[in-house]
Specification:
- By secondary structure, the protein is of the alpha/beta class.
- It has two domains: 96 residues, Beta-Lactamase (2-Layer Sandwich); 202 residues, 3-Layer(aba) Sandwich (Rossmann fold).
- It contains 13 helices and 13 strands.
- The strands form two sheets. The protein has a seven-stranded mixed β-sheet with strand order 9-8-10-11-7-12-13, with helices on both faces. Strands 3-2-1-6-5-4 form a six-stranded antiparallel β-sheet, covered by helices on one side.
- Helix 7 runs parallel beside helix 9.
């Protein structure tokens, strides 16, 4: 057993989501969204590096020594898998480990809206799950892939960096490819995917112009494509995709995106008040004819209004989702206010006047 495995077992038993090991600091875990120090000595660079390299593949050590950053996955048998990032900082080496549960929670287990099942059954198109780092995008996508795996009879291909949730085939054939190990890059793997007869393609992250372009092409040519972006709302997601491209291409991309897009799910994660854990509030945009028209005509600023009136299509605004959790007493009024879009709706729930100095 590697020396570092003791930290993983401890964080797993506590239910922590992340482990931070950084030269010059005590180990720190993230428990229900908050950082907590572990009673342990401050870490020294050489000792920490030795501890980290004990679990690191040789080729990843080489990459880290050359670049100062590296990503990979690590598994502790009978405990969990971990998404790993090493980086250099002022005092020396540092690392962050995100725990990936061995059991994949389903759409119902996570309390996700029923529209997510319908999205997992689409024959083709682009479905985007967005949100800041640590907002649960991978967990939501894993639930959708799991539902498709149990319900459809198709070929599912995932392209990830690194592989997070491991899916065992049920009714579908599943091939999971890791960037850096099984393919040189997202774009190389996605280009190859078009010749590998997939029905569903999961792209871990739409990082650059070429990857986005290939994902759009895959969606247009009869594949169901799931992907993630680090954007905070549905309208910002559409802006981000279009703005990646040069000005002379943007009109064409707006047309292409309007045809291929099926849905955008933007997540915000909240600490629960009713019990330990966290819960995701979702903004859901469904690409109805009205939405497609707004994208084509570059009127993304009107998308929020369409979401507000699109409940019958399965749409919901972020504020609507937050209000539901607030009334159910699952989240605090302060967290609801701080993360809401229209803050005036949530002021009445605060025990004292808000201190948001950014609002004029």
């Amino acid at each position: 057993m590697a020396q570092i495995d003791a930290f993983f077992k401890m964080m797993h038993e506590l239910g922590a989501s992340d482990l931070h090991l950084s030269t010059g600091s005590q180990p720190i875990i993230r428990l229900h969204g908050e950082l907590q120090r572990i009673k342990y000595k401050s870490l020294v660079n050489d000792e920490l590096k030795k501890m980290l390299y004990e679990i690191t593949p040789e080729n990843k050590v080489k990459i880290f020594e050359e670049t100062g950053d590296v990503d990979f996955s690590y598994e502790v048998p009978n405990v969990a898998r971990y998404r790993v990032n090493f980086f250099r900082q002022r005092l020396g080496v540092a690392a962050v480990f995100r725990e990936i549960p061995q059991k994949i929670l389903g759409i119902d287990d996570l309390g996700l809206p029923g529209i997510m099942k319908r999205l997992a059954m689409l024959p083709k198109g682009l479905v985007l799950v967005t949100g800041p780092t640590g907002s649960g995008k991978s967990t939501t996508l894993a639930a959708c892939i799991d539902y498709a795996n149990r319900t459809r009879r198709d070929h599912i291909l995932t392209i990830e960096d690194p592989i997070e949730f491991v899916h065992e085939p049920v009714n579908c054939l599943i091939n999971q490819r890791e960037v850096g190990r099984d393919s040189l890059s997202f774009k190389a793997a996605l280009r190859g995917a078009l010749r590998e007869d997939p029905d569903i393609i999961l792209v871990g992250e739409l990082r650059d112009l070429e990857t986005i372009q290939l994902a759009l092409e895959a969606a247009e040519t009869g594949h169901l494509v799931f992907g993630t972006l680090h954007t905070i709302s549905a309208s910002k997601t559409i802006d981000r995709i279009i703005e990646v491209f040069p000005a002379e291409m943007q009109s064409q991309i707006r047309s292409s995106l309007s045809e291929s897009l099926r849905a955008v799910i933007a997540q915000t994660l909240f600490k629960r008040e009713d019990r330990p854990g966290r819960v995701a509030a979702l903004e859901i945009l469904i690409a109805t004819p009205a939405v497609r028209n707004l994208i084509r005509e570059n009127k993304n600023f009107q998308i929020n209004s369409v979401i507000e009136t699109g409940k019958k299509f399965g749409m919901q605004s972020l504020d609507e989702s937050i209000m539901k959790y607030l009334l159910q007493k699952k989240i605090s009024s302060e967290a609801a206010y701080n993360n809401s879009v229209n803050k005036s709706k949530f002021r009445e729930f605060l025990s004292e006047a808000p201190q948001d100095f950014t609002e004029v």
